[in-house]
Amino acid sequence: MRIEHDLSRFKQIVRGKIRQNLRKYVTHGEMIGRKGRDLVSIPIPQLDIPHFRYGKNGSGGVGQGDGEVGTPVGSPGDDEGGAGAAGSDPGRHILEVEVSLEELAVILGEELELPRIEPKGNDTIEREKARYTSIRKSGPESLRHFKRTYMEALRRQISSNTYVPERPRVVPIREDKRYRAWTEVSLPQANAAIIYMMDVSGSMTDDQKEIVRTAAFWLDAWLKSQYKGVERRYIIHDAAAKEVDEHTFYHTRESGGTRISSAYRVAADMIERVFPPTDWNIYVFQFSDGDNWGEDNEKSLDLLRGDILPHVNLFCYGQVESPYGSGEYIRSLEHSFDEAESKMIAVEIENKDGIYACLKKFLGTGV
Length: 367
What we know:
- By secondary structure, the protein is an alpha/beta fold.
- It is 34% helix and 22% strand.
- The chain folds into 3 domains: 1-49 and 94-113, no CATH class; 126-186, no CATH class; 190-363, von Willebrand factor, type A domain (Rossmann fold, 3-Layer(aba) Sandwich).
- It has helices spanning 2-20, 22-28, 101-112, 146-159, 206-226, 246-251, 260-273, 297-308, 329-336, 339-342, 355-363, and strands spanning 39-44, 95-100, 124-136, 179-189, 191-199, 229-237, 241-244, 281-288, 314-320, 344-349.
């Protein structure tokens, strides 16, 4: 239908506008507060909704009189903008459109040229599904197996000598009817676990946590598009670490010193107890300003090397720039691990503008 074609075209225009402004959305995170259950409300500037425009009666124009050569087509007052007296007509406003998180993830993947993720390990059973795998002699007519019914009727008529090849007519009776039967089978679905770790020591500010929050939103969107089930866990730490809920993760006030090893211990214990690597695809994202108690560096690196990296698909470290942190921890990671061999990626995020490049590097490996 024409209206469906127009709607499809309008959706394509909206999608194009989102792609044009994706870097701005990623950078500023303005749509996170607009997130619903499965949809995100996105402000789209400079987009007109198709609508009818009516002229003024008796004002002349095309189709109303002879007219004169060179007369412009249009109505008085069609000019947009410019100076003039106050009027009563509405102006142009930013349009808000709702986009599913799944479609948003597709756009993100296209713009960042992200590869599809290849799940590893055994899959986790997510649900049961009915599959038609056998035939029975009774059942609802909606499940009648016409081919098997015909074959049973033909076999019966041939064996009883009632089948006439010159007049090949096969009429099933009640005893000939066959029906499809189902059995419940388990469908394995690849599941993923995301573990977020964030430094909430005294050197981390609200600006740094806003960067973490924005990055996590996009990381969630992409990984949910790759897996049927995604579990998220949150760990905060200063000199000590603990698991918290999502709200606490983003709203804890900063204080105290820094021991990164405390967060690694909690994460390693969580992987062992809750997310066995044989059943889960595990992604760990750590955010810090790079400040760590000097004597704790070796402990942290040993825990990362022995208890975390061997069990995860990917370990990503994002170092946000802070006016108070030393920023040295990323150097320790770079000197201790080879990204190509260790599944570890380290990125410096100077400000919100760095989120876009951070996502591309974090997710560009396709693991």
